[in-house]
Amino acid sequence: MNFCSHCAHPVVLEVPPNDSLPRYVCSSCARVHYENPKMVVGCIPLWQDNILLCRRNIEPAMGLWTLPAEYLECGETAAAGAARETLEETAGVVANLQPYRLFEITHISQIYLMFLAQLQSTAVRATDESMEVKFFQEQHIPWDSIAFPVIEQTLQGFFSDRVRHDFSFRILRVTTRMKSPGQ
């Protein structure tokens, strides 16, 4: 951040009075600008024994496979955001969303909340955000082309939990960083 969103003057990084962390503070109006983690919401869209994945048509990780997930919008619930993202990325309509995993990804200041969800039909298609959407059974998941470590962990956890018939909500931490192109 370089400029104050309130008055457009330059900001400086400093610890404000009565605070313990460095924050961007306006050099003119003294407004403190807090930067907090971003909330990403998504789901595992299920149809019978299949999971719907989408191949990204946007950066980062364009061309790689993922579950539908993206940033939560202001004014929407987490479940509504996950359903919206599924619709935007796959044209799929989901219901019966159940919280499944919360991932803390502190090195990129993100929190992921992933839901289990039932697709209402197989009427899905590629969208502006996804160049391809496809149903996968476990043995056909394209593990070497999964876009993000959090998605890989979500899928691995789901398949492990499915064997045990235990889909308990869990909070996990992701420390694995995304691979650079060509790795």
Provide structural commentary.
The chain has helices spanning 78-90, 149-164, and strands at residues 11-14, 23-26, 32-33, 38-47, 50-56, 65-66, 69-71, 94-105, 110-119, 130-136, 170-173. With 183 residues, it is of the alpha+beta class. It has two domains: 1-35, Ubiquitin Ligase Nedd4, Chain: W; 38-173, Nucleoside Triphosphate Pyrophosphohydrolase (Alpha-Beta Complex). Strands 4, 5, 6, 7, 8, 9, 10 and 11 form an eight-stranded mixed beta sheet that branches. It has a three-stranded antiparallel beta sheet with strand order 1-2-3, with no helix packed on it. The model has no long low-confidence stretch (mean pLDDT 95).
Q: What topology emerges from the helices and strands here?
A:
Blueprint: E1 11-14, E2 23-26, E3 32-33, E4 38-47, E5 50-56, E6 65-66, E7 69-71, H1 78-90, E8 94-105, E9 110-119, E10 130-136, H2 149-164, E11 170-173
Parallel strand pairs: 4-9, 8-11
Antiparallel strand pairs: 1-2, 2-3, 4-5, 4-7, 5-6, 5-10, 8-9
Secondary-structure element string: EEEEEEEHEEEHE
By CATH, the architecture of the largest domain is named Alpha-Beta Complex
Derived structural class: alpha+beta
Can you tell me the residue ranges where pLDDT is under 50 for at least 5 consecutive residues? none
The description of the largest β-sheet is:
8 strands, mixed
- Output the CATH class name of the largest domain: Alpha Beta
Q: For the record, give the distance between the C-alpha atoms at the N and C termini, rounded to a whole number.
A: 31 Å
CATH homolog superfamily of the largest domain: Nucleoside Triphosphate Pyrophosphohydrolase
Domain count: the total is 2
- Beta strands, count: 11
User: What portion of residues belong to β-strands?
Assistant: 35-45%
Integer average pLDDT: 95
Helix run count: 2
Radius of gyration using CA atoms only = 19 Å
CATH-defined fold name of the largest domain: Nucleoside Triphosphate Pyrophosphohydrolase
Helical content class: 10-25%
Shape: elongated
